[in-house]
Design a protein that fits this description.
- This protein starts with a helix and ends in a 5-residue tail after the last strand.
- 43% of the residues are buried.
- Strands 3-2-1-4-5-7-6 form a 7-stranded mixed sheet, with helices on both faces.
- It is 37% helix and 15% strand.
- Helix 5 crosses helix 7 and helix 6 runs antiparallel to helix 7.
- The chain has 266 residues and is an alpha/beta fold.
- The longest helix has 21 residues.
Length: 266
């Protein structure tokens, strides 16, 4: 395996995907269960912390206070847990939530251990300013899943199982939608039509604004259909911009796509 192939593989292991297409074509296990769905072992259940989300999406505590917020896909992230404590009304959605919480907890900690070992030979492709070391990263990933699992046990109805591009929510149910490390990240496996359909669905369930991080794929290249996508959204009455953020772990992954609705997008 070349260094580039290895780096792409390890980046993918550190992301939580939310699509059957991604899962079926991932470089993880390729088997499916008898019903044709996904087995738990095919899902990488790793998440990011509330603090990472705030940096990735240029958010402040005042911005989230009192807001209904959708985290899609939510994975094992602690954003919902901490945002709830700060006065927000968050809901997380992910394909992984169809499984029992205890199963996800065991799988998540196993995935953290496995991912940290796999990252050791490719540390150079990451920016370590925030975490300092693999041990520091492990501690943050552990903190994220610990908070997430505790919140899932307290508010199980706020963690909804679904597969994009379909969401089981009402039109404009949320004030703000956040989507991290899924769209654009898997541009090699999710086509333009899927991206458009998913973003339109995110906009459907959102009153005002959708933020997507990052704007690059696993190789660190800007999404190649970004200009086409922005034009489509602008034609449907949205203001679209690529905004710099203070977060960067994967090299070159330091901008988010900010989509603001003005007219109806359907």
């Amino acid at each position: 395996m070349s260094r580039d192939e290895q780096s792409r593989d390890e980046q993918s292991r550190d992301e939580q995907s939310n699509s059957k297409e991604v899962q079926k074509n991932s470089r993880e296990d390729q088997q499916s269960n008898d019903s044709g769905g996904l087995e738990l072992k095919q899902i990488v259940f790793i998440g990011r912390t509330f603090e990472e989300y705030m940096k990735m999406f240029n958010l402040t505590v005042d911005e989230i206070n009192g807001k209904s917020i959708l985290d899609c896909p939510g994975g094992a992230c602690s954003f919902s847990s901490q945002a709830r404590k700060l006065g927000a009304d968050p809901v997380a959605v992910d394909i992984a939530y169809e499984y029992e919480i205890d199963e996800l907890e065991v799988k998540g900690f196993q995935d953290i251990e496995h991912t940290m070992k796999q990252m050791e030979p490719v540390q150079g492709i990451y920016v370590w300013d925030q975490f300092g070391s693999i041990q520091g990263l492990k501690e943050e990933r552990t903190r994220a899943i610990t908070d997430c699992i505790a919140d899932m046990r307290m508010f199980p109805d706020r963690y909804v199982a679904s597969v994009l591009p379909d969401l089981p929510f009402a039109d404009e149910q949320f004030d703000l939608t956040l989507s991290a490390h899924f769209l654009f990240t898997y541009a090699d496996r999710l086509d333009v039509d899927f991206h458009v359909a998913t973003i339109m669905e995110l906009l459907r369930v959102t009153k005002r604004e959708v933020r997507i991080f990052p704007t690059v794929d696993l190789s660190g290249e800007r999404y190649k259909h970004m200009d086409e996508l922005k034009l489509i959204l602008e034609e449907r009455g949205c203001t679209v911009s690529e905004e710099p953020t203070s977060y960067e772990f994967q090299r070159n992954a330091h901008t988010m796509l900010q989509i603001v609705k003005h007219n109806r997008t359907r």
